[in-house]
Amino acid sequence: MRYSKMFMPTRREDPADAEIASHKLLIKAGFIRQVARGIYTLLPLGQRSVRRIERIVREEMDKAGAQELLMPAIQPAELWKESNRWNEYGPELMRFQDRKQSDFCLGPTHEEVITDILRNDVTSYKQLPINLYQIQSKFRDEIRPRFGLMRGREFIMKDAYSFDVDIEGANKSYDIMYKAYEAIFDRFGFEYRAVEADSGNIGGSRSHEFQVLAETGEDEIVSCQSCDYAANVEKAEIQIAKSEIKNEVEAGTLEEVYTPKMKTIAEVSTFLERKPEDFVKTLIYLAGEQFIAVLVRGDHNANELKLKNLLKSDGMDTTEFRMANDVEVGKMTKAPVGFAGPVGLKMPIYADLSVAPMANFIVGANKKDTHFLNVNFERDVEISEFADLREAKGGDACGKCGGVLESFRGIEVGHIFYLGTKYSAAMKARVQNKEGESCPLEMGCYGIGITRILAAVVEQNHDEKGIMWPMAIAPFQVMIQPLQMKNEDVVSTAETIYKALKDAGIDALLDDRNQGAGTKFKDFELIGIPLRVTIGARGLAEGKIEYKKRTDEAFEMIPLDGIVEHVICDIKSFKLNT
Description:
The chain is α+β, with helices and mostly antiparallel strands. A hairpin with a 5-residue loop joins β19 (361-364) and β20 (370-375). The longest helix has 21 residues, at 167-187.
């Protein structure tokens, strides 16, 4: 391809609304353009890289035995009502009506549609297992789309769905997909972690996220330094570290202390000259129609997912589950927000495990501008249950082996779920098993964010000059840059190299613009093509060609008669390594 014939609108200035590297660079380098908030056009360079990402995903999915199909983006409400998600999914589901006032939605995912397909054509275990996938645009009406392709409203996604006759088969399908995902992300050259995760509104009981490590990641994950356990902080299991277990001390006298206008742990700890870990926070939640209190140490955060799951397991209604508002807190505690405490509180009280060994701690006194000192369990507070209810963080003890957890920021690029019979039972997708009995299909769901990968790659592969694409998904493999466009020898040599590389199957871009070396080099660095071949009159007079890798600071001079083979060998070497 010739640069002069391509639509490659690069920019020198950062977009005003861009906050992270991938958003800035994909716009500056001419890969994307915004149409509306959270909705982007893929320009030719962006489309070329996305197609390379899709090719790798297809190769590994096909290798794993999945079959590609394409389902419609528009889905009828009837299917979503069968699965009970029409009202449950929330405002992210873009709903609309056609001219006949029939309800439809723009598909954010396709569990209902694929289940409908299978229930009409699969009747026996002999037809299983089946794994079907598609690569298609999705739409989720995010309340705060941001970071360019990282959290958009419209995006390209690969979603796959497995169907088995029993749990054993479903787990085998899940494991096959897990390995396929590892192969995919290895080929992209990512530094990533596969972490345990919550299933969210997709449903299911087994779930892993594939998180690309990046400082700009929206998710926090933890990984054990002693075993292979890794999880999203929402899901991570933790133990009480030995350092947190305190020796028994004599219970002090319960004491009321005046703390004027001090609502936060930071304010009260400074005022009382005590550490935040000497405090216990009391948080009020509403579960169904029941108010409950949750206790966590002053320097910890409550994990609402763990709490909700605990309440569910205790048989409590969590259809409506949220933190109580200021008015509700005042009504239940007789005090403003910031002064709630467990002493004398008339509701079920749940406490995090790290609170259990505490003694003589400080809490709100359920009275304006007042706290209690020397609070102790049994004497002052009755706990309904102690459980792991806090958000994990670096330095915590691993819930599996007791080792130390290390904290990372991550970008979720893939998520796999074991769904069980959540959809098949609701939608009556059943087959006959070996015993001749009718049973609901066991399902799995497997997603990869194609356009999010484009952004994630940039987050891990850039410098102050621009993008540094891995060879696997670069829009071109090599850029050929003749520097003196009026010099016939320079131009003809560039054309000869360009043709030889194309004939060898190399995806080359010939920078045939009549621009100075500075402009050409800056565009090469900004766009991030892996290899650069530069033809200059001075080097050519010595029979040498300048050759540079985007990831290297220095260039090397290669004999003219060996430059084509040198490029080919480098590209082949990359393919062998992947």
